[in-house]
Amino acid sequence: MHQASHIGLIGLGVMGRNLALNMADHGFTVTATDPWPEARQSLVTELANYSQPERIRITPGVAELVAALPAPRNILLLVKAGATVDSLIAQLTLLLEPGDTLIDSGNSFYRDTMRRESELADQGFHFIGLGISGGEEGARRGPAMMAGGDAAAYARIKPVLETIAAHYGDSPCCARVGRNGAGHFVKMVHNGIEYGIMQLLAEAYLLLRDLGGLDHGRMAATFRAWNNTELASYLIEITAEILDKQDDLTGAPLVEMILDQAQQKGTGRWTSEAALEFGIPTPTLSEAVFGRALSALKAERLAAADMLSGPSPVPLKTDSAAFIESIRQALLGSIISCYAQGLALIEAAGRELDWQIELATVAGLWRAGCIIRADLLARVMNAYQTPGQSGNLLCTSEFAQLLATIQPGWRETAALAVTGGIPVPGLLSALAYFDGLRQPRSAANLIQAQRDYFGAHTYERTDRNGVFHTEWSQL
């Protein structure tokens, strides 16, 4: 049992309520509120059956919460990202004292976090942007948390956060990854990788169903078997459970009764926009965003199905065990490519914004508690901790060797998907990223020649220094 530590919490939705209970479980005292009486009452009702209800104090409003906290105060904000956060901060700054710390634990855009940190610092307040992953269960039992902000401010809240976080062995999946917006940036890229992996799993399911001809029981068994290989992860695990679930109304596999239109909340798009901003290729993460956008065009897809010709997927007459293993290899290679793209983006942003992010630390935070938690991440962490290893994850010795062994299945699966008319943009983009990275001489020289031809944009040469322009046309 830890010595009681007083902390404020504003926002008693699913995440806030569960984080409050998590803190209380670990011996911390929480003062909490929510602008909605229904949210406050929901927690009051839950506390009636809780073993230590005295550890959570509920106030009717923000002013009462601030008054109940001893200075210097630490207050977690778990409200909707955007204007709601700014409005709440404006309200709080009228009540706080210099030295108090606000911790934004929502899915805020990292540029907003940087702005808020600067504005609050000018007023004598501390601000931490805290990315949290793990959903409802993670908040209750231990999430992964990525903090950005002043080191001294983080040190004050560290005993609470690192105690309630998920743990991988003895290591908490919570740390300060850098200054101001670094925490929310790392969480944003986490979500971008999450988009990518979910897209890849959907493509594997499509291949197993439409080319492999597997029924849902066999597909579920396949994913469960994969969960005992290098692919072991939370998303693989829940995919097996989803494929096994029967619809109570029809008795059919429930997944087939769900409309094929995937929604999104914006963090995947933010990741792709950041990749463009920092000039880092994240093709698989971006294809996942486009994949959801294309899925939303249901009416257009139904019309196109009647208009556009192409191969119709027919189950292959082949050794199913070999086919399944090829898909496993393709999925493994593509997921590693996803990690490489996301981590390269984090490294570039950290360098540009002077966040001094350590990629081994980031991978370590994702080993437990978060949605993309996977056994592979321990190997990613180790790869970046190995002396002499730096740069792109694909070029670390461990992963270069692993990718060499799984390329045959990866390439065979890509070819079968294309000839069979199965859309697998995630898998193909991941493989193209791998092939593009390993090209000692690309086709970009032709692009530079084209740019110089129509726009006199100049080019550099391979055989001498300087910048050159050619009069290409003889007309």
Question: How does this model look, in words?
Answer:
- There is one protein chain.
- By secondary structure, this protein is of the alpha/beta class.
- The protein has three domains: 6-180, 3-Layer(aba) Sandwich (Rossmann fold), CATH 3.40.50.720; 188-437, Orthogonal Bundle (N-(1-d-carboxylethyl)-l-norvaline Dehydrogenase, domain 2), CATH 1.10.1040; 443-475, 6-Phosphogluconate Dehydrogenase, domain 3 (Single alpha-helices involved in coiled-coils or other helix-helix interfaces, Up-down Bundle).
- It is 55% helix and 9% strand.
- The chain is built from 19 helices and ten strands.
- It has helices at 14-25, 37-47, 62-68, 83-93, 110-122, 135-141, 151-164, 182-211, 216-226, 234-244, 267-278, 283-295, 298-307, 320-352, 359-365, 376-385, 397-419, 425-437, 444-455; strands at 6-10, 29-33, 56-58, 74-77, 101-104, 126-133, 144-149, 167-168, 171-172, 174-178.
- Strand 5, helix 5 (110-122) and strand 6 form a beta-alpha-beta unit.
- The longest helix is centred in the last third of the chain and has 33 residues, at 320-352.
- The mean pLDDT is 95.
